Automatic annotation (TrEMBL):
GO terms for molecular function: 5'-3' exonuclease activity; DNA binding; DNA-directed DNA polymerase activity. CDD domains: DNA_pol_A_pol_I_C, DNA_polA_I_Bacillus_like_exo, H3TH_53EXO, PIN_53EXO. SMART domains: 53EXOc, HhH2, POLAc. NCBIfam families: pola, PRK05755.1. This is DNA polymerase I. Keywords: DNA damage, DNA repair, DNA replication, DNA-binding, DNA-directed DNA polymerase, Exonuclease, Hydrolase, Nuclease, Nucleotidyltransferase, Transferase. Residues 710-917 form the DNA-directed DNA polymerase family A palm domain. Residues 45-307 form the 5'-3' exonuclease domain. In addition to polymerase activity, this DNA polymerase exhibits 5'-3' exonuclease activity. In addition to polymerase activity, this DNA polymerase exhibits 3'-5' and 5'-3' exonuclease activity. It is an enzyme of class 2 (transferase). Belongs to the DNA polymerase type-A family. InterPro entries: 5-3_exonucl_a-hlix_arch_N, 5-3_exonuclease, 5-3_exonuclease_C_sf, DNA-dir_DNA_pol_A_palm_dom, DNA/RNA_pol_sf, DNA_polI_exonuclease, DNA_polI_H3TH, DNA_polymerase_1.
Amino acid sequence: MTDSDLLRPDAAADTSLTGPAADALVDPPADPLADPRLDAVGDGPRPRLLLVDGHSMAYRAFFALPADNFSTSTGQVTNAVYGFTSMLINVLRDEAPTHVAVAFDVSRQTFRAAEYAEYKAGRAKTPTEFAGQVPLVKEVLAALRITVVEKEGYEADDVIATLATQARARGFETLVSTGDRDALQLVDEATTVLYPRKGVSDLVRMTPDAVEEKYGVRPARYPDLAALVGETSDNLPGVPGVGPKTAAKWLATHDGLEGVVAAVDTISGKAGASLREHLDQVLRNRRLNRLVADLDLPVGVDDLALVAWDREEVHRVFDSLEFRVLRDRLFATLQAAEPEAEGGFAVEVARPRGADVAAWLDARAAGRAALHVTGRWGGGTGEVTGLAVAGEGGAAWFPLGGDDEPDPLDDEGRAAVAAWLADADRPKVLHDAKGPLLALAGSGLPVAGLVDDTALAAYLCRPDQRSFDLADLVLRHLHRELRLEEPAGEAAAPADADDQLALDVDGTGAATTPDPAPAAAVRAAAVLELSGVLAGELAERGGSALLAELELPLVGVLARMERRGVAADRAHLEALEEQFAATVSEQAEAAYAVIDRRVNLGSPKQLQEVLFEQLGMPKTKRNKTGYTTDAEALADLLVKTEDTEGSEFLVRLLAHRDASRLRQTVEGLLKTVAPDGRIHTTYQQTIAATGRLSSTDPNLQNIPIRTEEGRRIRQAFVVGEGYESLLTADYSQIEMRIMAHLSGDEGLVEAFRSGEDLHSFVGSRVFEVEPAEVTPAMRSKIKAMSYGLAYGLSAFGLSRQLRIAVDEARGLMDDYFERFGGVRDYLRGVVDAARTTGYTETILGRRRYLPDLTSDNRQRREMAERMALNAPIQGSAADVIKVAMLGVERALAEEGLRSRMLLQVHDELVLEVAPGEREVLEALVRREMGGAAELSVPLDVSVGVGTSWHEAGH
């Protein structure tokens, strides 16, 4: 009984009817105390049971969050799973239950449907985007070790009623989280319903008084009210002409439904006549809406005790769902998950000064050593306040200055540290090294000899993990916590003392900063130990060479690129911001003129009223609040309503949205222009599971280039002082070239070797026409399909993308595979091979493990299959551009050029050209990029030059 429009009451306090209707009603539930599992609760804090109606809350979450904003990179919609999980984390945090269970409906074939065939008939078909998310919710619950309870032939409500009744008898406090008003019949002094008022984030506490205030009856009489008024969502019709107020009045006057039935002949007026005419219907409603509270379940309340979740399984499930932020929130707000730490780190921290610094480093850090840097970094630079070094012979703390360290090393000690850091023969290990390297360089302490980065090593072992926080990795791999183990009776230093801004107060009342040395030393020691463990795992997974030869060398390249930044024309950005702001205002006014009134163009509710009521436009996809007004739906609507009054409004609305988005982009860029007049983005190597780099603060990979207005933003990225131009170089159709290489398809290989336009060549084969006869429409279809196939695109997905019928899309794919059988065989083979080995592999051996390829869960299996198609191609493209970056940076240094690499955006490099170096730089870039991989087809490199990024485009 999910999402009822109206009501229902408490099974244990059910006022079963007597008199004329007695034989028509189901007997009340058996005494729950007869259950042998239910012993009295002993002394101690009162236990609290949380019962969640899984389907109800997931369904509400689905409509509360837009499906378009919640999907994985493989296309699996996750809004219901995300919303449900977010709600669950909040309730677990806020209510702190001791026992938890989630109940689900098994099917609609229940005893209620057996009695009344029309029960719940007429409900809308489950949305396609929601189908398949309930199994994913159950996987989240399994990872969190929360019990799922179901009962064939009954509904989740009945399971909840049974458990709540048992809990009441045991002295538990019970909370029921559900969007189904049927559960209100369970409310009493021991049981509260947490009812979602808005979405699933705003939960209202429905106590006995709250129920009475809202519905005019106490919870025990709520099912009586529902029987009289009816329940639309369950297709239980009420008495015509009888509303909640009339029903509540009758129940109060006659002491419940039993009294109403007994006095039915005396109730006057049309309402009374209607009641007498529909009395059998009322009695049937009452039988059906009474929750069953005595089910024989496989678990009892004692089996529902909350336990620590399965940390590894949480990582696996949340990674596959791409719930990075949600997982971080889970770990931050709830008690630590298993595995439990077996202890901390026993580290004796040395504090050498002066000449003793060099002596300590020579004696204790002559071999492999780990560093932990304290300080600040970002925006291409940073500042170091201290450095902890951990070697096989112990750990030491070297204060280097700053607000947190009043007693920094003297000149001799600092010089010794600088010499050790710059010595390439002293192997060094860091965690997430790029930021610390920038800070050290910014403090005049450049580093050589980096041989490991534990964040990168963990990423290559498990690229889908998403979170590579040091504390988490140490717990996962070493079963230890980042804390200093002190002698018995002494307090341990907090693991993150060096990161805390809070001040301690000593016995005199004077404020003092925490000593950063112990925590920093612990982190350095942990990195050193973690490095060894991860090295073994990485070797087993075939990733050692990838780390040593590609990812680690790239750290330094990226650090230098971030430090350089790219020059920005602030005046141009400010002018663009004003222009886009003016366009936002102009398009809004033009939209208002069409409808002759002002509305909030950002309000879906107001837009629905304008589009579908005032303008009478065709309805879009239905959602909880009406009909969707997202960009894709409005674009489809515009095509359907061309040359109508509504189309003019849509044109203005979409233009308003585009200008608003561009304005926000420009505003974000303006905030990141540094004092040196340049924008210093931050590159991340551990975000994309396929190996692609990502950019943040600001995200330069997200600068729009498909429209002329968007391309104007690139005009703000200009050549800097002392340089003559920008040079851009990118790969042409690299993913399709990799597809040709991996598949060995003779047709695709021939297309690239011939030098003809790929999509026209392929189109001529598929449509059986000469290349010159391939129309733009044909070429567009082939291009969409060629790229889509590499990402597991289905016929349905292709039909939506091209706005053609599914049968036409399927026929197009069949024709494609008939002409290019090698592609078909490769796509089939790569999934089968991954299912056998457990992973996919790029040209350079980057692996992505996909255990769900053999999952019994269809949704998870299909998600993994799409990943298996995508990873080798996109991952190989990522590897190739990284190899090219290393080659370009190395060649620039070897040839002594002043020109320098500034940006990497997907398959494109942006370089700043020093005076007189343009021709030699272009030749160098073409050579290094074209030779980055040996493929069966050539790597074509396009080059452009100009004074701005836009002008240098090609």
